[in-house]
């Protein structure tokens, strides 16, 4: 996939569509999660294959929600909710990421807003949890603007780019 040019202006509602993940998105999602900046903020290993992505999509529960942000036919962001089961059925974990060239342009806000709308208005989830690296200030600010609060810090959470990094455990309780 050829790198996309950074837009000169932030996208607006006409520029970006948020929709459900489809199986035919596997190749674009694999390319997205392999971008250095995207991967730096996640637990993904380098060089995800479309087959890896397909397996993950196919193995998801019907209660899971997977969304992508699309601009001119190109996936520029993805995110999802994984609902817990049993006595934790009121809660879900959230994960998301945005194309390196599209950060700071409102795509993450749009994607997060749609995920939270589904969680609140359709699934009646009471608690949304996530982990975010402590050095990812833009993501932490986005989550805090949307009601997430730091509940603790995981020390030596993950090995990333040759060293260990801490991560905050954050959660949002349904307003």
From TrEMBL:
Any GO MF annotation of the entry: acyltransferase activity, transferring groups other than amino-acyl groups
Record-annotated N-acetyltransferase domain positions: 16-171
Keywords: Acyltransferase, Transferase
One Pfam family, short name: Acetyltransf_1
Stated family: Belongs to the acetyltransferase family. RimJ subfamily.
Protein name per its UniProtKB record: Putative acetyltransferase
């Amino acid at each position: 996939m050829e790198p996309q040019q950074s837009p000169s202006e932030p996208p607006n509602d006409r520029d970006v569509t948020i929709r459900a993940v489809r199986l035919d998105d596997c190749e674009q999602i694999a390319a997205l999660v392999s971008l250095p900046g995207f991967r730096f903020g996640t637990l993904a290993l380098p060089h995800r294959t479309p087959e890896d992505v397909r397996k993950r999509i196919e193995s998801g529960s019907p209660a899971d929600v997977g969304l992508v942000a699309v601009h001119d036919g190109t996936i520029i962001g993805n995110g999802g909710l994984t609902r817990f089961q049993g006595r934790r059925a009121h809660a879900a974990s959230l994960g998301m990421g945005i194309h390196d060239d599209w950060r700071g342009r409102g795509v993450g806000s749009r994607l997060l807003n749609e995920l939270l709308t589904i969680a609140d208005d359709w699934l009646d989830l009471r608690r949304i949890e996530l982990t975010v690296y402590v050095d990812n200030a833009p993501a932490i600010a986005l989550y805090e603007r949307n009601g997430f609060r730091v509940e603790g810090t995981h020390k030596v959470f993950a090995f990333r780019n040759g060293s260990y990094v801490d991560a905050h455990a954050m959660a949002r309780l349904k307003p």
